[in-house]
Amino acid sequence: MSQLRSLAGALRSSSQWMRGHVGRRVFDPRRNCSSGAAEPSLAACSSSYVVEMYYAWLEDHKNVHEVRGHHVARLDPLGILTADLDSFVPSDLITSIDKLGSYGLEESDLDKSFQLPLTTFIGGNESTLPLREIIHRLETSYCGHTGVEFMFINNMEQCQWIRQKFETPGIMTFSDREKRTLLARLVRSTRFEDFLARKWSSEKRFGLEGCEVLIPALKMIIDKSSEAGVESVIMGMPHRGRLNVLANVVRKDLDQIFCQFDPKLEAADEGSGDVKYHLGMYHERINRETDKNITLSLMANPSHLEAVDPVVQGKTKAEQFYRGDTEGRRVMSILMHGDAAFAGQGVVYETFHLSELPSYTTHGTIHVVVNNQIGFTTDPRMARSSPYPTDVARVVNAPIFHVNADDPEAVMYVCKVAAEWRNTFNKDVVIDLVCYRRFGHNEMDEPMFTQPLMYKQIRKQEHVLKKYADKLISEGVVTLQEFEVCVSLYGNLITVCCFPDFFKPDGEPKSMSCPSTGLNEEVLRHIGEVASSVPLKDFAIHSGLSRILRGRADMVAKRTMDWALAEYVAFGSLLKDGIHVRLSGQDVERGTFSHRHHVLHDQEVDKRFCIPMNHLWLNQALYTVCNSSLSEYGVLGFELGFAMASPNALVCWEAQFGDFQNTAQCIIDQFISAGQAKWVRHNGIVLLLPHGMEGMGPEHSSARPERFLQMSKDDPDRYPEFTGDFEVQQLYDCNWIVVNCSTPANYFHVKPVRSNLIIFTPKSLLRLPEARSSFDEMITGTKFLRIIPDGGPASKHPEKVKRVIFCTGKVYYELAKERKRLKLEEDVAIVRLEQISPFPFDLIKAEVEKYSNAELIWCQEEHKNMGYYDYIRPRFLTVHSKNPIWYVGRDPAAAPATGNKFTHLAELKRFLDTAFNLEAFKGRSF
Fold it and tell me: What class of enzyme is it (predicted)?
């Protein structure tokens, strides 16, 4: 509020602000005394004018400190920067005589005692304070080494809770025992970095120097959360300080950490690449402060710094789900961030927006920002537009606690409050640890090139351990000798070992098999009947949906299934076996193409809905189907984390259109494709990506199969040699399975083992009458078909066949229709490649040898520089080098599809004509 506010406005505001409360002591602003007594004497009451001015001033001054006090808090340990990027001090935070004078108050009024309002806690047990002391206590609460942002929260109870935590006098004090514990934790944090710096001075380690307080901060959060009943904490963080967190928070064995510096460490031992500061850890131990068991998980993370955020949230949600922890009392998450990444990475925003969605909430995450005040070499003023790096958290009304990282006790208190907030309100909270980076981006970097003044100050900066030790020694909490003993004891713990045997790979899985996926016909029929009905009574459904349900019932009666019903049966059969199924993504409840309808909505009663699949069996597993926020990156990361938690769950993420997986590419590249190789972390997530050239334009046609195939690790130039079952060995040896099913039955069967699975799902085939499957293709004894050979006249006399067209997905039906029109069923065979990767070398070889006199064609609807051709061509040559395989399809292009329907149909006719023009290839040499 402006200090030029009119006197009339001040009087009116203060009178409204100080209205009495029924049943409580009420202050009469006309007198400086409590009402209810006889007519007060002049000696007992100050002049009404001074009192009115005091309340006008106090309302403004208190509000300004609550809203803007953090702007002048002493947050930077170096004393050279302002955490909010602005060194200007707002005039309404200045408490000079001139400021008081604008309210009609004089210097002599500073020593007068005034009644405190009920909305403040600065008085503690006192109801009156001198004006000078009021000013001091407000500044102590909001302008010291902590800065609190909370007044944007639109909840009075929550705001009052925070006021009490920061305004109550003496509330930030610690016992001598707590101080000694803090000191010991600082010693462990600091000495760990010292040892690494001495032992491996030329190695990158992304140490924690400049923010050593992070270790005791995390331990305080874990202690307080454990005290409140939390049993499992799942953490995600970037690489700075990861080794220290692994050693001193998660308690990974030091020999395991140090041995990762061994230059002879092979990728097969514990993942590939720079595993030291990217690898995760899972450990169950006793929390010594609470004597309770606690499980700590630190998730593996790539250098895409914030990519792990939704993954942590998904794993946390899964653990809560499997433990029946519906309120997040037993499982919680902690996310650590860098300041530049927190402000700059969009996935942070996406993750925050999942925080209170019913199917994604983890009931509060504690975010700890290690605010280096620099991003690699980039000054904060060039890295963000917001005053603080943490401003993104305001969108979900998360309180933000800024704190000077060189004040360990202030940090501990803020962490304690954050843990209590999360336990009380089950909402996110942010701790902004304003610190510095003692070395460069890594230990080999020279920061003086770009931040010379900052690093001149850093070189002079006294270490936080020494400052805090000196403080406790001066207070008599510890002696110098005790401190030195503590330092030496931890130093003696750090020893280097030889390479431990348990790092060696376990070898092949003990059991390698593909379980049967066919079902008893009674089960098929039962699930189909439930899928065709509404389990709830008096439930009004849409008339159009009634027709869909009748259509399902008709298919069941005829022992056939379309795509949606086959999916329904697949999910339902897993639920019968106690396997949890989760389907997530944009509009998945109904399905983008209005084919699924797994959630029925009452047309008469608002918010009444039914999920028939949860009414299949008495003791079935739960089916979770949930429309997500309009996010791919964040939601796919979330589902990936969920899938990590249980090997016995089916977790599917569906893109609205396959094209939209583009914005989740980081999760696909870093976690799904390479996660097992990098971090030895197996997964089993399923990506459902609608794909197909149908004239819908470049944004709604291609799921970019070429990208997935390029990242598949099978060797195109080597025919695999397996001693056991070829199919099984291939599946266990791949980084993911890529399929493009052409029948509902094959879609039903498709997941024989726990592996990442990429499915290019159809659009027009969802309703194509020819794209239906009989019960006979799904009953007991049936299985997924990696290829579907030609079953028509051409297969009866393969030696007479002149051409074999290999294809995948929807284009088969267009080819089959054209072949029939041209009456070429005996001359041309069409073979469908259902599993594209791992490439079915054995089955393709059999087909090529079967049609030994035929020309081989690969036909795809995608452009030549996209789709599957570049992947399958060298593998066909490996199968049979004497038989070249020719390409038929669209010409190379920059965009994946045309947006013009006429052009689309012309392209389709052109490549269909080419596919069946036998004369076109005569005389051509490979």
Answer: oxidoreductase
